[in-house]
Amino acid sequence: MHPLTKLLTHVGLTVIVPLLVAGLMRLFPVKSIFSEGTRDFEILRKRNNWIDVVACVICLIGLWSAVVLYVAGMDNRDPWGLAFGFGMSVIAPLLWITAVTLPGGKWRFAEFWVFYEVKYKVNWKGLAAVFLPLAALGVVSTVVLTSRLLVQ
């Protein structure tokens, strides 16, 4: 990895991401009847935390998908591999959360997102402001990379 890339990654993870999260918390505060530490939230935590933990692992796997692409021979100057990794870090966990909660009905799906909002202290509008562009990037990069494979 190029030294400048390492520096930007380190700065991004230690400075930019915490500032972004703090800004989202401020711009999109949670307006839930639940709050951490209450009995109701503990019930939500017992029902939903395991889903979130697995989603976090899946997110990391999604990020590492970019590394796999580059190791497999993709040109390391091609930005679509990185875009794919960032996109999969959102799309794959969202698919997991949907697959686990939606069979219980839309109320179960909504319950998970209430838990997620309270746990991370950002409401759904703030989450959508981050998740939707990254998911769109993942879809576009998947189309670009798939079209390249089909043309070859």
Short description:
By secondary structure, the protein is an all-alpha fold. It is built from five helices and no strands.
Give a description of the structure.
The protein is mainly alpha-helical and 152 residues long. Helices cover 82% and strands 0% of the residues. It has helices at 3-27, 39-71, 79-101, 106-120, 124-151. α2 runs antiparallel to α3.
Keywords:
single chain; 152 residues; mainly alpha
Layout of helices and strands:
Layout (H helix, E strand, L loop, with lengths): L2 H25 L11 H33 L7 H23 L4 H15 L3 H28 L1
Helix pairs in contact: 2-3, 2-4, 3-4, 3-5
Report the biggest beta sheet as strand number plus sense, adding barrel if it closes: none
Compute the CA-based radius of gyration. 18 Å
Beta-strand content estimate: under 5%
Terminal CA distance reads 27 Å
> What structural category do the secondary elements indicate?
mainly alpha
SSE order: HHHHH
Counting DSSP E segments of at least 2 residues, the number of strands comes to: 0
- Indicate the low-confidence ranges by residue numbers: none
The total count of helices amounts to 5
Mean pLDDT over all positions: 84
> What's the quaternary structure here?
single chain
Using the alpha-carbon principal axes, give the shape: elongated
Fraction in helix: over 70%
